Amino acid sequence: MIRTFLLGWALALAAMPARAPAQDLPAQIISGMRLDVVATGEVTRVPDLARISAGVVTQAPTATSAIAQNAQRMVLVRAALRRAGIADRDIQTSQISLNPEYRYAESRPPALTGYRASNEVAVRFRDIANTGKILDALVAEGANQINGPMLELDKPEQALDEARMAALRTAQARAELYARAVGKRVKRILSISEAGGNFRPAPRPVAMEMRAAGDAASSKIDPGEQSVAVSLSVSFELE
Q: Which of the residues 18, 225, 227, 234 could staple to 171 if both were Cys, CB 3.0 to 4.6 A apart?
């Protein structure tokens, strides 16, 4: 029976159609000289989105009291953000913490003095002109921890496409330059690969500005400009 099974298996294998061998894609053949160029295109835009983190830090003798006080003040902070027109989707809790506080003295064990509670939200502002006023309102409502702003582009795709085209024009001009230097001309582009885009944000300028004599200082955000750059590797054939 075993011999019959092996014979049938061998006949089945013989009847199966042979698989065609794998074929490699044909290599791109060039008749002239190959030139590889790396070029970068860069455009600038005024940032239209700001990100900050704002929160409340409270201290109290007990953990329950520290958390309760913190929660009460964060209600006011969130209310201030909503009055400023910030949508719920642009407010996100980023950190909540509760830690014991100790007093240290030489030759003595640490003594518990209370608890420190922290609650922080990440906020996106699309109206950068009013960011300074919003920061002032947050502080007035009890926020005692603010970091930022980080200024960026809300929708960078168009700027990236402009940078890509600028990089390609630079690569083509550079190829023409090299071709003339060696007594040839650019015949065609063989390949284009993108090394990636990057953003060069402006520094975070939170300047203080005096409105008038006797008035309190107000935080002012200067958006400046942000650079968007794309690098391309382009191969040309010269003839």
A: 234
**CATH superfamily membership of 33-46+156-238:** Protein of unknown function (DUF541), domain 1 (3.30.110.170)
Query: Could you give the CA distance from residue 225 to residue 206 in angstroms, rounded to a whole number?
Result: 15
Strands (E), 143-224: 145-152, 186-200, 206-209, 218-221
C-alpha dihedral, 208 to 212 to 215 to 216, nearest 10°: 0
Contacts of 6 (CB under 8 A, 6+ apart): none
- Report the alpha-carbon angle 220-226-230, nearest 5: 165
pLDDT score of 220: 75
Chain segment 10-49, per-residue pLDDT in tens: 555 555 555 555 555 455 677 889 999 999 999 999 999 9
Nearest 5°: phi and psi at 13? -65, -40
Phi, psi of 126 (to 5 degrees): -100, -10
Place of tokens 């690969």: 193
CATH no. for 49-152: 3.30.70.2970
Confidence of residue 61 (pLDDT cuts 50, 70, 90): very high
